[in-house]
């Protein structure tokens, strides 16, 4: 079944030797000669455009490219290429280049549904296209004929966005190269997954290799678990931030070289299939991107609660103990997890009869479910090879494992020898869905965690089960070392492609610690091509499985991801370490996944691997202060780590109650962001430039982030620090923990950095002017917290005369799989607040589909208004357009006295107490306004003598 190595490999090898010999001898000479830049041998000489036609009915352009001059570097050139260009929407243009004669591998349309490109060879029809430009609404495609190049520019600004004329296009079977020029001041983001020590903004000359790999997240600038060949390009044009994005939809391994003024892709297969997204705002970019790749999956409400996990909860008693300790420490906890400890000999979908006996586990689940808590377990894709194991037997019966040389491909993971199911095979997916169903009958878990799905393999190459020693050896202290008998695979061009990407950050073989790339999936699909889709295809199958059995909104956490994974699963940033550096890196990776359309993301709080010496207590305080604001907030540790549940230290428990206490008050806001992410792709956690694209000083900010549009988190990331230097974009920002503390920034220059106090147990979280923030009373379990009364925090600029503020809240029945605004199932309330002349204040809500909220009895008890002077009087409330006595009959509205402001202004070193006489926080309390009814509330402010 395997293709033989093609004859061209031989001459190519000789050429390389020849080239190396020349390089060595010329080096010898150049030691004395004048230094002279040696032009690198090009991998190709480009193509010329020989025809171009416009298909009827807006069907795009189709062109034919002819290679100009052949080379054999990295294999022979594909002589004739088909160009296809289409403005698929008003803000998206696609430029696809592929072999004109032969179908090539591309990301399967059933995994990532999208508009098809025209079939090859079909009579295209249409008229010759002679114009130099092919404009859409704002994006314009232009091209050169000989040599062929293409460019995309923006009509409104005339800015070139992408231009491939700087280097010849190269298109071989296993090597594609294309390069674009970039302005030196463009800020780029994306191209993951990698841990970026330089922060969120791509750093010139850092390596960006994309190939899914189980290299732990502590490896910097390395191809980690996911592959996302997309970047956002943000440029500041005369004070205005303008963004677009570029996706190269391709699942093959690739190196991307970014120099600051150019970006070059070197890809080892597939097509060049570019999508350009016009923006022009960062939010518009992610909207357009997720419209194409799939909107982020809606998450259940409880998933925004706090999660605790550890690899090494040896038995159920330990787990029970953890839950009770959280409970008695009054630290919020919604979800308890087990890694592989509940399993029988680390086999998927099993229970250890000794450590997690089923009757006891079911009794425990009854108990925690009654409290509103949830339970999630891990599963790996590798299925233990064991004739007595039903999951394995059924998989063999259905013949769904990935194969090498006609036999299931043998690997080693935690249970020992395993085979890998093929989730691209429809039978493989339906077998998996059935196994998920069977397991759910055994244990009613609330979600699944799919790990090791890059796929990770402790061995490399072609392996057999040893006859001379036990594998795995149950006494081994290092069960992650390969114990199978293996030999390297070097005989195919899939195992040893002509161009070597920087796999695993060490130019490793493609098959290194994963499935051999010459292995085959269903229908002859090569692992070489489908490798980076493995975790994605597993997430899709797992999602189908959970949704069909539970009839509920699934929660899945996956380690390996690809373009589109966000429509099915959440992500954590993988195996990090308990260090201050890892604490800091977590922010950039989290923000990147927001851009990748996967906003439910977080890092292992307090670190997964133990650091030595462990700086744990202080670090863990700071980590929960940051991690409480990750969209996905979970403490997880390795079996070798010291215990690090948040109640283990008094000081950490205090920090946790404080930070998670605020998170649980913010749950309605986070859940509304979840809804907005699902509708528009807007990330839950966002880089500052998402709300302040014109404010260039925030383009590189990687130590702070926004939740939604107007809440900013500025954590401490340094040992021993008791203050934090934070960037504040223009406007008034109120400390959410103490709203009398305000920061007023004009956003000018370096003075937009403020030094704020940050004692050990406190984290700085601010709300920006113009926001109406919905809060509830909080609690320790989200089910209870979500039933408590609401407070609306209305943030006006400090001392505002005329200002507006807006916000919204979405509530629904999170058991329903779909997140749609429908009568009886969900309610959406929009809030608008205004002050006029510094006196007349209006707070209005505008409710859609109110009945769900009414049936839950949700009410607003308080409105907190920030930034105004004086005290309120003459309160008038209308509900549903009428002076509704019944709606507020149970309450007695009152105004609370205003607290004085402590405003920190630009240029002030110390805490400047600004205008002690002036009010800044005033309250309208004692309300019982139904959230499900539109209301208008007015009052006036008067300044007391
Ligand atoms: C792309 O580069 C070519 C060659 O330098 C140039 O003629 C063309 O104007 C450029 N187009 C855009 C949109 O940048
Ligand atoms: C559970 O494991 C803990 C820690 O390993 C041990 O101390 C305890 O005896 C075990 N309990 C049961 C019921 O096995
Ligand atoms: C197969 O699994 C059973 C049950 O866990 C175990 O007792 C047996 O040793 C396993 N066999 C092999 C060959 O690993
Ligand atoms: C396989 O190749 C790797 C990397 O070249 C090498 O380190 C290893 O020793 C080889 N293994 C065998 C069994 O030949
Ligand atoms: C491969 O990646 C590693 C890790 O970032 C880097 O140190 C190394 O220089 C890269 N190698 C090449 C050839 O780019």
TrEMBL record:
GO terms for molecular function: carbohydrate binding; hydrolase activity, hydrolyzing O-glycosyl compounds. InterPro entries: Gal_mutarotase_sf_dom, GH, Glyco_hydro_31_AS, Glyco_hydro_31_C, Glyco_hydro_31_N_dom, Glyco_hydro_31_TIM, Glyco_hydro_b. The keyword Glycoprotein applies. Keywords: Glycoprotein, Glycosidase, Hydrolase, Signal. SUPFAM superfamilies: (Trans)glycosidases (SSF51445), Galactose mutarotase-like (SSF74650), Glycosyl hydrolase domain (SSF51011). GO terms for biological process: polysaccharide catabolic process. CDD domains: GH31_MGAM_SI_GAA (cd06602), GH31_N (cd14752). Residues 296-673 form the Glycoside hydrolase family 31 TIM barrel domain. The keyword Signal applies. Residues 1-31 form the signal peptide. Coiled coil: none annotated. Residues 681-773 form the Glycosyl hydrolase family 31 C-terminal domain. Residues 166-252 form the Glycoside hydrolase family 31 N-terminal domain. It comes from the Eukaryota. Pfam families: Gal_mutarotas_2, Glyco_hydro_31_2nd, Glyco_hydro_31_3rd. PANTHER family: ALPHA-GLUCOSIDASE, ALPHA-XYLOSIDASE 1-RELATED. Belongs to the glycosyl hydrolase 31 family. This is Alpha-glucosidase. It comes from Triticum aestivum.
């Amino acid at each position: 079944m395997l293709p033989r190595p093609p004859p061209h490999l031989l001459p190519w090898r000789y050429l390389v030797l020849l080239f190396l010999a020349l390089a060595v001898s010329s080096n010898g000479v150049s030691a004395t000669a004048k230094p002279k830049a040696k032009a690198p041998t090009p991998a190709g000489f480009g193509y010329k455009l020989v025809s171009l036609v416009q298909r009827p009915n807006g069907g795009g352009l189709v062109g034919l490219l002819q290679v100009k001059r052949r080379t054999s570097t990295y294999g022979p050139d594909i002589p004739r290429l088909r160009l296809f260009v289409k403005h698929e929407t008003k803000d998206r243009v696609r430029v696809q280049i592929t072999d004109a004669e032969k179908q090539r591998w591309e990301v399967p349309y059933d995994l990532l549904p999208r508009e098809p490109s025209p079939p090859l060879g079909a009579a295209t029809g249409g008229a010759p296209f002679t114009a130099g430009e092919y404009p859409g609404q704002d994006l314009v495609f232009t091209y050169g004929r000989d040599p062929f190049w293409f460019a995309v520019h923006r009509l409104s600004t005339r800015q070139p966005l992408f231009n491939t004329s700087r280097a010849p296009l190269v298109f071989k079977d296993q090597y594609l190269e294309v390069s674009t020029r970039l302005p030196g001041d463009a800020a780029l983001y994306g191209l993951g997954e990698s841990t970026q020590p330089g922060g969120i903004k791509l750093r010139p000359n850092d390596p960006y290799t994309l190939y899914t790999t189980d290299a732990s997240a502590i490896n910097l600038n390395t191809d980690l678990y996911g592959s996302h060949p997309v970047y956002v390009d943000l440029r500041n044009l005369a004070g205005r931030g303008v963004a677009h994005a570029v996706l190269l939809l391709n699942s093959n391994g690739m190196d991307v070289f970014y120099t600051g003024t150019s970006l070059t892709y070197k890809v080892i297969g597939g097509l060049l299939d570019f999508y350009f997204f016009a923006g022009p705002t960062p939010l518009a970019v992610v909207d357009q991107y997720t419209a194409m790749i799939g909107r982020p999956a809606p998450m259940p409400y409880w998933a925004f609660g706090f999660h605790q996990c550890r690899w090494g909860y040896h038995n159920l008693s330990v787990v029970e103990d953890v839950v009770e300790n959280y409970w008695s420490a009054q630290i919020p906890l919604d979800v308890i997890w087990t890694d592989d400890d509940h399993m029988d000999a680390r086999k998927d979908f099993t229970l250890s009869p000794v450590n997690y006996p089923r009757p006891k586990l079911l009794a425990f689940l009854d108990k925690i479910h009654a409290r509103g808590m949830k339970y999630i377990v891990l599963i790996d894709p590798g299925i233990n090879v064991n004739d007595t194991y039903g999951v394995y037997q059924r998989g063999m019966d259905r013949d769904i494992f990935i194969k090498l040389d006609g036999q299931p491909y043998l690997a080693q993971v935690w249970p020992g020898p395993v085979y890998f199911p093929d989730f691209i095979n429809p039978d493989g997916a339906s077998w998996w869905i059935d196994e998920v169903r069977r397991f759910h009958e055994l244990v009613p878990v609330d979600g699944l965690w799919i790990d090791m799905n890059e796929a990770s393999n402790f061995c490399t190459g072609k392996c057999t089960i040893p006859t001379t020693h036990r594998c795995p050896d149950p006494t081994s202290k290092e069960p992650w070392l390969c114990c199978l008998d293996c030999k390297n695979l070097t005989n195919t061009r899939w195992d040893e492609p002509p161009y070597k990407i920087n796999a695993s950050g060490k130019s490793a073989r493609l098959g290194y610690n994963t499935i051999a790339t010459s292995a085959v999936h269903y229908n002859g699909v090569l692992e070489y091509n489908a490798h980076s889709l493995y975790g994605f295809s597993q997430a899709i199958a797992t999602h189908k499985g959970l949704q069909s059995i539970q009839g509920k909104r699934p929660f899945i956490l996956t380690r390996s991801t690809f373009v589109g994974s966000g429509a099915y699963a959440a992500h954590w940033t993988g195996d990090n370490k308990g260090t201050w550096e890892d604490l800091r890196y977590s922010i950039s990776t989290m923000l990147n996944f927001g851009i990748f359309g996967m906003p439910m993301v977080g890092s292992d709080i307090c670190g997964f691997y133990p650091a030595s010496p462990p700086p744990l207590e202080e670090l863990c305080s700071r980590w929960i202060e940051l991690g409480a604001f990750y969209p996905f907030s979970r403490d997880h540790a390795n079996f070798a780590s010291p215990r690090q549940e948040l109640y283990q230290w008094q000081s950490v428990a205090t920090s946790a109650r404080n930070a998670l206490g605020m998170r649980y008050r913010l749950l309605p806001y986070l859940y509304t962001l979840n809804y907005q992410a699902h509708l528009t792709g807007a990330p839950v956690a966002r880089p500052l430039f998402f709300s302040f694209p014109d404010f260039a000083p925030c383009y590189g900010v990687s130590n702070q982030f926004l939740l939604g549009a107007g809440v900013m988190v500025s954590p401490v990331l340094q040992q021993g620090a008791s203050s934090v230097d934070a960037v504040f974009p223009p406007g008034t920002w109120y400390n959410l923990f103490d709203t009398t503390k305000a920061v007023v920034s004009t956003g000018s220059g370096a003075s937009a950095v403020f030094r704020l106090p940050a004692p050990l147990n406190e984290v700085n979280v601010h709300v920006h002017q113009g926001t109406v923030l919905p809060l509830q009373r909080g609690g320790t379990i989200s089910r209870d917290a979500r039933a408590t009364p609401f407070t609306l925090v209305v943030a006006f600029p400090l001392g505002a005369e005329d200002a507006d503020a807006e916000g919204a809240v979405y509530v629904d029945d999170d058991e329903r799989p779909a997140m749609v605004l429908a009568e009886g199932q969900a309610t959406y309330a929009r809030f608008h607040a205004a002050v006029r002349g510094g006196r007349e204040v209006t707070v209005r809500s505008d409710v859609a589909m109110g009945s769900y909220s009414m049936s839950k009895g949700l009410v607003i008890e308080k409105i907190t208004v920030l930034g105004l002077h004086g005290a309120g009087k003459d309160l008038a409330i209308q509900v549903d357009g009428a002076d509704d006595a019944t709606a507020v009959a149970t309450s007695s509205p009152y105004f609370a006295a205003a607290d004085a402001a402590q405003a920190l202004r630009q240029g002030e070193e110390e805490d400047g107490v600004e205008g002690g006489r002036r009010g800044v926080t005033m309250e309208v309390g004692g309300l019982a306004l139904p959230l499900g009814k539109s209301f208008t509330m007015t009052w006036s402010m008067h300044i007391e003598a």
